[in-house]
């Protein structure tokens, strides 16, 4: 399973996010991670990772995130890097919450420097699954911001990152990071980075964006955008796609029934199952969202069975009468 990325711009990688300008003692956000994934160029169903990042004033870099893989589902990932060394991790892991994350669930991610420890915490507000880990702060007291433009791989802030085995320019679905608790107000730098076989690209805000600005501020890249407003960050360009299907069932025995089913997918792949649905019918809609009404199907099946039995009984009666006529003495 894919673990957290090594720092910086990787070959065939994309990074979208924001870096804090001021120092903070905690980073805390909630989000609804999408089930987007890719098989382009041998990606093997790998999806984005949604990451918190914290650089301590002693130079150690902490990452905590939630990711998705089409083969294994959602997972939590974390990594701890020593000062100025993005190629080596002191600790890292990929774990599951105590209860499974489902599509549409709200996940909270938190990291905090306190009492010479750095605490990492993740939880699913719907399934109530949790993950908890702590590591020595090595006498650090805060996560440091960057008053000037990005100067090194390590930073404090949030980031959506997606690795690919080949150049990938398809759009990414939108995800919103919303401040949860423990969040301190700070101006931010917005950024977009990508590195592909065709060449690298990068885009940054020309100046720090004021904290909790009410007017949305966006920067654009080839396959994604970053928008900051009221303390929240939106990465990605596409809204989840909504499909609507209508099914009408008629019968000479039962009244016609029309059901309209609307469901939302959070993947670019057509094979993804629905994550939410609603129906105007009195019948129960199967959770796979394929638009087939199970109760109607059962009723139709019963009607067909009754008709078949009637035809069978009628034919059997005719055969029996035929045999008796041949047995009558002449």
CATH class of the largest domain: Mainly Beta
Write down the CATH topology of the largest domain. Jelly Rolls
Number of domains: 2
The count of helical stretches stands at 1
Strand order of the largest sheet: 6-5-4-3-10-1-12-13
Could you give the distance between the termini?
Answer: 86 Å
Q: Kindly state the mean pLDDT as a whole number?
A: 74
Radius of gyration: 28 Å
Strand content: 35-45%
Overall description:
With 330 residues, this protein is mostly beta strands. The chain folds into 2 domains: 223 residues, Jelly Rolls (Sandwich), CATH 2.60.120; 91 residues, no CATH class. The strands form 3 sheets. An 8-stranded antiparallel β-sheet has the order 6-5-4-3-10-1-12-13, with no helix packed on it. An 8-stranded antiparallel β-sheet has the order 9-8-7-2-11-16-15-14, with no helix packed on it. Strands 17-18-19 form a 3-stranded antiparallel β-sheet, with no helix packed on it. β3 and β4 form a beta hairpin. The longest helix is centred in the last third of the chain and has 34 residues. The chain starts with 12 loop residues before the first strand and ends with a helix.
